[in-house]
Amino acid sequence: MTNYADDEDQAAKVDARQNVSRRSALKGGAALAVLPLTFEGPAEAQPTAPMVAGVAVEPAHSVLLSTSVNGKVVEFRVDARSSLLDFLRERLALTGAKKGCDHGQCGACTVHLDGRRVASCLTLAAKAQGREVITIEGLSDGEGLHPMQQAFIDHDALQCGYCTPGQIMAAVALVNEGNATSKERIREYMSGNICRCGAYVGIVAAIEDAASKMRRA
Amino acid sequence: MPAAPFAERARFDARDKVLGRTQFTADIQLPDMLYAMSVPATIAKGRVRSVAIDEAMKIPGVVRVLTAKDFLAPIPPPRGATGMAAAPAVPTIVPDIAYRGAPVALVLAESIEAAVQGAEAIQATYAPSASFSPLITSEGAAREPSEPVKAGNAAEAMARAATIVEAEYECPAQHHNPIETLSTTAVWSGGRLTIYEATQGAQVVKANAAKSLALDPAIIDVKSSYIGGGFGQKGTAQRQTALVARAAMLTGRPVKLVMPRGQVFHNATFRPLSRHKIRIGADASGKMVAIEYDADHQQSRGGQFPPQYHESQPQMYGVADYDGTTANVRIDTQAPGYMRAPHPHPASFAFEGVVDELAYKLGKDPVAFRLAHDAKVDPVSGHPLSSRFLNECIAQGAERFGWSRRSQAPGSMVLADGTQVGFGVACGAYPAITSANIARLRVSADGSTRFAVSAHEMGQGIRTVIAQALLRQLDIDPAKLDLQIGDTSLVPQHLTAGSWGTASVLPAIDAVAAKMKAAIEELLAGRQIDGNLHRKLATVRRPYIEVEVSTLAPGQEERALLGLRAAGYALAGPEYPAFTTFSYIAHFAEVHVEPRTRRVRVPRVVSIADCGRVVSLRTAVSQVRGGVVWAIGSALREETEVDPRFGGWLNNDLADYVVPVNADIGDIDVSFIDRPDPLLNATGSKGLGEVAMVGAAGAVANAIYHATGRRLRRMPIRIEHLL
């Protein structure tokens, strides 16, 4: 588990890379806080996607969140109770990550947090402070596809598509963890992501295919 | 002339899906939108005495709480109405509680967090009923016989039988659990109600919302462009729809509800527990001659899901004498409903088990025994079966699977470490049903094409099928093809279920393409213009041509279109005026039973399907694999358990209702006969999504018998049953 000091360090690094001054970002947040009800909104940095209209949040429940989402710095005043999943979906309009159970049982909400796969429904948004979040929307530039996305198409590793973003994020992490070594191991390490349509045969084939391409890249 | 085989094509919407761009109902973001959270009843039966909302209203961000008094009385069904029109409106929030988990309030808030906290702060008091019936064996469970199915004289034929096998099988209650939960977003604006809902029947939702809210259906539009898995759960009217719509009307703001999975277990339909008592008699030569089959299932007090467990069995094996009875057993639960292969799945688990038992009793190989029972006629209607390649499925499957390596004696195949190996076979059939359709096609000079047709995409691949068929007929740009489905504001939307999607869109595509070609020909009036249709239109300076068609299923009359427009329902089959037709499949399963843990694994399955002409091979293969995964889940894992003390479902989440995960699934080898049905439609396609699952659970259970000698007649088969 990362401690707060680490979070601060990480945040500084992210800020430096994004060339956004953390001080100015915080200043922006503080300025917003003088309103009777604080309205969420980006401070200095641009959000990664069309942002949902600001929503009144009681200051007692809010925290200022500074994080990186898909490579872009995001400064938001968020409800302290908000899960990372709800924050991504309802505030940033990044709806690729899905809510299937809200209990960490289905994997449809899988995103990368500092490169590790997490169930974003079980992760408080506030825990993303100073860390790097990558969602399905940030996996490729949208024109070209990530090898895993292409392999999911090639092997028809999906049907309804609802669990697919979570499957792909889990699959990319699995390859990076070094777990794509056999069909059996892939099956085991993909078993946190339920596909009710039953596309498992295609998912395993897609991961084997993409893993070899990711290793070459 | 039957259609030629189709070339393979990638899934039409796969690119958007892997990019996370496909917009599902819960992904909709609208300005000024409120978030809703429903509050479930905590008694099994009784009446709400009071709902205190004060504490909830104090929570910052909570805007309003709806309770029973915020809803109007629904419109009763018209006098003398029959069929779907006679069904009462889906209840809104009502004081009478018919099952645990029914909604007692709906909290509206500025954020999800506030809505959830508000829902938890609602305090309801109840007047519980003195007693309730949670199980079909409970006091107060009411048995109600339903329609029998008969052919010939089974009692007489049974009396002549030399060998009889009789057994009782059971399938538990199960829940669909698509990964997308129930979700509705409603907008009330300018005197129109727009409902975005994950539904397999946009017109069904429209008709029912009108009834529940006492509104003119003409002011309601329902849109369901992508569904995150349906499996039948989203095929009937959903409890939350009218609640969310009413909330939007009362607040004047868009309202979105994503129902928590725990509540979905209680408010959605489910596969009811069913019991199957079957006797099969064979004559001295070992030919099956008589079937007696009594089926019943769990039913709610007012539920309408019929116990039609005799859909597929009568014509399976050429037995002329069949006697099937059915019954509902009414208890206090929410209404059960259609879940993938609704009747043929449990029925085939039972029936194919008894067939396997009979083969063993006669000392016959289960594959050879089935091959010796080909059929040409549906004994119930007396009609010829227009296409049936079940024996081809069995023979090809046996070959691919390596059935010849099997030794017949149970427990005779053991690996070096003591693992028991079993090979099992079972077959399935599903009625080839089709619907009327209405479609509108616009081809434009700017290169775009818009095609609106009655269909819903829940992952089965209907957009891919539509694109495949349309692009084979018309020279249009596939990159700018917009398939507009599941939207009642464009064309009426028939319920998509029962594997009738493909066979119901193909005739509409044939008709619309023919009409478009004729319109272009007339426009060009003999001029020869190179290029595709867009180029031709641009050359003659026509911005677009639009044509509309309506089509009917074989034997259907024009008035079927009224049913389609009004209620999204206009079905025909599998008995058509001069023929009957089904889709078929043969499944072969290998199971391994571990010697010490007794854990059952299914390392491989081979499935060969006869669904007529295959239109989209890639999505068809995926459909069959999915059906097999469902059957493995049903055979080995899935059961929703009732808490008899309090009513309601105990294991109402995905940790306790165990569906197959990746590690549960091995190889699934799928192939198709791909021979057209000569009578159903010009392409010769039947249906696939349901039949894919039928028989596969039986194949697993029969393989477990072969591995262990244990004949287990109740799903799911778990470790404790094999100790």
Characteristic key phrases:
heterodimer; A: 217 residues; alpha+beta; Ubiquitin-like (UB roll); DNA polymerase, domain 1; 2 domains; five-stranded mixed beta sheet; two-stranded antiparallel sheet; 7 helices; 7 strands; 37% helix; 14% strand; disordered N terminus; B: 723 residues; Aldehyde Oxidoreductase, domain 4; seven-stranded mixed beta sheet; 24% helix; TAT_signal (chain A); iron-sulfur (chain A)
Please specify the SSE layout and strand pairing.
The complex is a heterodimer of chains A (217) and B (723).
Chain A: H1 4-18, H2 22-33, E1 38-39, E2 56-57, E3 62-69, E4 72-79, H3 84-91, E5 110-113, E6 116-119, E7 132-134, H4 147-154, H5 164-177, H6 183-189, H7 200-216
Chain B: H1 14-19, E1 34-40, E2 46-52, H2 54-57, E3 62-66, E4 96-97, E5 103-109, H3 112-121, E6 123-128, E7 142-151, H4 154-159, E8 163-171, E9 183-189, E10 192-197, H5 202-213, E11 220-223, H6 240-251, E12 255-258, H7 261-267, E13 274-282, E14 288-299, E15 321-330, H8 344-361, H9 366-371, H10 390-401, E16 420-431, E17 434-435, E18 437-444, E19 449-453, H11 462-473, E20 481-485, H12 501-524, H13 533-539, E21 544-551, H14 560-567, E22 571-572, E23 582-593, E24 600-610, H15 617-636, E25 667-672, H16 696-708
Parallel strand pairs in B: 1-12, 10-11, 14-15, 19-20, 24-25
Antiparallel strand pairs in B: 1-5, 2-4, 2-6, 3-5, 7-15, 8-13, 9-10, 9-12, 13-14, 16-23, 17-22, 18-19, 18-21, 23-24
Helix pairs in contact in B: 5-6, 5-14, 8-16, 11-12, 15-16
